Amino acid sequence: MLFAPEGCYTDIAFGITRRGRDQVREHHRIWRTAVPEFAMLREHAYESGSTVIVKTVCYGTFSGADLGGGKLKATFRSFRARAISVLELNEQSQILACTEYYDKSTMPIGDATPFNHLAWPYQDLAEALSTKMVTAS
Predict the structure, then answer these.
(1) What are phi and psi of 98, to 5 degrees?
(2) C-beta of residue 49 within 8 angstroms of C-beta of residue 81
(3) Where do the domains of the chain lie, and which CATH numbers do they carry?
(4) Residue 136 and residue 92: Cα distance in Å, rounded?
(5) What three-state secondary structure class fits 78?
(6) Per-residue pLDDT of the chain (137 residues; tens, 9 = 90+)
(7) How many other C-beta atoms are found inside a 10 Å radius of the C-beta of residue 81?
(8) Cα–chain-centroid distance for residue 2?
(9) Which residues contact 125 (CB under 8 A, 6 or more apart)?
(10) One-character DSSP codes across 108-134
């Protein structure tokens, strides 16, 4: 298991915190339903003791279910964004806390596209999906 039973996930941009494995799993299920082909690709990772910091490029298309209980309607727009995740691990290397930082204006509901100059890291979506860094479990 990636997350410890008492682990939590915090999305700073949307002000969401999920506590416990079941809530974290549900959060990722909701996200993957809204953005079915979402990929998070590692650019850099840094480790110091029980802390890991990962810089990623995230991309996908908001083409699935609405978010926020229907308040955020699917835009069918593709997005590319950079994110930083700070992970605190327990002695079994399970995640006690994952805090993600990104500019939500670059995400599926945003208007900004500051990373459009970045090349897509893979030739096609199938290749990207076969090398995803993160899976929900």
Answers:
(1) -125, 120
(2) no
(3) 3-129 (3.10.450.50)
(4) 18
(5) strand
(6) 799 999 999 998 888 899 999 999 999 999 899 999 888 888 889 999 999 999 988 888 889 998 877 888 888 888 888 899 999 999 999 999 999 998 777 665 545 444 455 554 544 444 444 444 443 33
(7) 24
(8) 14
(9) 37, 39
(10) TT----TTTTSPPSSSSHHHHHTT-S-
What tokens does 85 get? 């995740």
Strand partners, 6: none
DSSP string, 21-70: HHHHHHHHHHHHHHSTT-EEEEEEEEEETTEEEEEEEEEEE--SS-BGGG
The SS3 of residue 92 is coil
Residues across the chain: 137
